[in-house]
Amino acid sequence: MRGWSAPEVPQLPVTGPVVQVHDTSSRTLRPTNPDGAARMYVCGITPYDATHMGHAATYVGFDLLNRAWRNAGHEVLYTQNVTDVDDPLLERADKVGIDWVELAERETELFRTDMEALRVLPPTHFVGAVESIPLVVELIQRLQSRNAVYDVDGDLYYDVYADPAFGRVSRLDRDTMLTLFAERGGDPDRPGKRDRLDCVLWRAERPGEPAWESPFGPGRPGWHVECAAIALQHLGVPFDIQGGGADLVFPHHEMCAGEVQVATGQHPFAHTYAHAGMVGYDGHKMSKSRGNLVFVNALRLSEIDPMAIRLSLLRHHYRDDWEWTDAQLFDAVDTLTQWRRALALGAGAPALPVVEQALAALADDLDAPTAVASVQAWVEATLGTNGLADTSDPDAAVLIRSLLDAALGLSL
Length: 412
What we know:
Elements: E1 20-23, E2 28-31, E3 38-42, H1 53-71, E4 76-82, H2 87-96, H3 100-117, E5 125-128, H4 133-145, E6 149-152, E7 155-158, H5 174-183, E8 199-204, E9 219-221, H6 223-235, E10 239-245, H7 249-264, E11 270-276, E12 279-281, E13 284-285, H8 296-301, H9 306-314, E14 322-323, H10 326-344, H11 352-363, H12 368-385, H13 396-408
Parallel strand pairs: 3-4, 3-10, 4-5, 10-11, 12-14
Antiparallel strand pairs: 1-2, 6-7, 7-8, 8-9, 12-13
């Protein structure tokens, strides 16, 4: 599966510090210490609807990590999946009377254009679930060789307690796990399972559903094993960061980790598990089921500057839960007008300290709000002096533009 076009990113004259990221598993801030290229997996979309602000906040958040690593001098290997066959996609296609393949391709293309507009750096590997079915089959076979797979009426299940480390990613008690498992695509009450938390690896063919041939009979992959197989193939284990929204901590990231750890005998799956907060609207988390969505594409079609959308997201720490409002977006539009006015002066307040402050903030758990505030302080100082004070830097605008682009992904 193809990704999207990569923007040209300027090189900064300052090397960023070691990047630290909050680890969900240990509940601590952990320095990233890449051995060679920095390796990151961020779970992608199920393409049955357009990109909303919750999606955008997650991918912009991990784009900051990609950029912080690059500014610290690392090559980055970034893998992202597309779950282009799954129950929600099939249900939506049936509801609207469209072929599920056509729906997946249309919404994936829309996602690409949204990410390109927001200047999110594309992944090194952008991989669909369908094209990864051979990888899934191979991983299931490896799990079978470890006696971690069993059959329930033709469906294959993963025995979560085959991994002694089960639960160490999410650190949740069993009752909470069961609640979340039921809410997030699991089937805790299915008869015949060994444990209520066991998850499906291979779903046997049902009438009217797509299916692929396999050694287990015709069927299709479960959700968790898809990401597990793609990450294992393209990044190896352990890799540096497993990322996604906070709603993926359990069961998705817990299950992915367990499946690979059991199959390979290697621990951990990822050194650090990083998760973005949830974005709300009208008092609730944005969700397709509730319908309280703000779509990136709709804002772009209404001629909103994509950089204003991105700035609105950057003003919130990636791990925070927050609520989207139109007022925030319009304030970002006004802010960009002010910033462009300051940059148009050419000269301005000293810029190198701003670069150092912003890079330090982003290396400290991707603290974009502090980085944005440092730029705002420069803008106000520059406009206050018209760039003509004794401390004026004649090349300030060039350096600040480069900082905005290289570190924050804002092209002004």
